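Q: Hi! First time doing this. I have a protein sequence and I read that you can turn it into a structure. Is that right? Here it is:
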Amino acid sequence: MSNKAKGSKVERELLDLLTENGWRAVRTAGSGVNDNSPCDIITAKLGKKGFAIEVKSSKKNAIYITKEQIEDFVLFANIIGLKPAIALRFNYEGWIFISPEQLKDTGKYLAISKDIAKLEGKRFSQFFEE
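A: Yes, that's right. Below is the predicted 3D structure, encoded as structure tokens:
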């Protein structure tokens, strides 16, 4: 399975989780491919603040994202009035949610390790039901 196919599968998995929990959600076409859709999922729920979500998964112990991608993502979320969130999926760990500010600057990239994500991140119900 290609990385693109794996990414799409993980995005659909999160989409299903959101809708099962009463959120309305949509995957954005071509996310990560061009500058016209700088996030993977847009979601909202009556009475809650909506989110623009960037989805990242890895079988490794850290996730790296270019600074430019995160800057575009945060700008996009702010322009349309949504809270930016990053959904992380490490193998065998389940979903962990963080805000972009929790990423660490490594020079060229922004990154987060699996251990730090588990320590500082939130699980689905903690993050979305605040």
